[in-house]
What we know:
With 326 residues, this protein is an alpha/beta fold. It is globular and about 60 Å long. Helix 4 (88-100) crosses helix 13 (295-312), helix 5 runs parallel beside helix 9 and helix 9 runs parallel beside helix 11 (247-257). The longest helix has 27 residues, at 196-222. It has helices at residues 9-18, 59-62, 75-78, 88-100, 116-130, 141-150, 168-175, 177-186, 196-222, 236-241, 247-257, 267-273, 295-312, and strands spanning 34-38, 43-47, 67-73, 104-110, 134-139, 227-232, 262-266. It has a 5-stranded parallel beta sheet, with helices on both faces.
Amino acid sequence: MYSSPYSNGFDALKLKMFSKCINCNYISHTPNSSYTFKTADFQFQHLYNEYGIRDRNNLKDQILNKKVCLTIGDSFTEGVGTHQDSTWQILLENNFTNLYGDSIIFINAGISGFDPINATELYYKLKNDLNPDYVIMSISLNDVIDVLNRGGKENRIKRSQILVKQQTGYYFYSWSYIFRVICHNVYDYPEMFMNDDEYKAAEEIACKDIENEIYNISESLKSNGGKLIIISFPDLWEFKNLSYSSQNYIKLIERISTNTDIKVIDFIDYINSIDFKNQIIVEELYWQTDAHFTPKGYELWSEIVFSELNQSKTLTEGDNANYTKN
Length: 326
């Protein structure tokens, strides 16, 4: 199946992946299945367990007598661009195991194509079975664009949280060069048929939608003594400039950071704070064509998260420090 580079490729990917899924709820991948992500840069097989997530099998047995940290988000959380055994969750779990023993398990519930609204839905689907003590949600400006395109919860179609109906012009833009040229001469944001003021207003609404989902998860966790951790990560261009490219997104991170019930790990802030940031070769962290992180990029991801969580004692002290699952 060929997908136009200007079309919603992840929606097309989901159609392909779910085509053999009977009674699929479209919240996760097909349980006990596999899929090979192949791009111009890489080819990696993803193996999905009984919950349809890229993690170990028999997960309910694996979490016994351990503190559970559920990680949710999009393809960067799922680990597109790296091997099954070198996702940032596995690397992060290895770091904690080496220091504190086999007491914390990090579950990879990232789903390619998700945004925070989808991720929140998956959290509620998994929480009764996995009963997480902590949730790590990874967000980026790309999530804001996804929510802007798809709309908030009220605009999602009931059949699927991913496969949303695009406006007609979207498909003309995907396939017609003439239509595309016209759009580029009319709109500041031609792919979205918006001018600058309209886009910024829509972006602000999308940030509010994401903020609401974050607070919903935080309140759900807090009622059981748990805690939400937010990871904010940049794309290649933002990493090179060590600054996010949206003021609305920057304000979103600032607002979340003032909430004492939420731990925020901002990759841009972290990189700006370290002495050896000039030694980081940004081009080695992202695949050239695909733009996902490389294995080296996910390794840096795990190092940043481990450093921040270990220094703050978020997982090793506090209400959940001596928590044991039965």
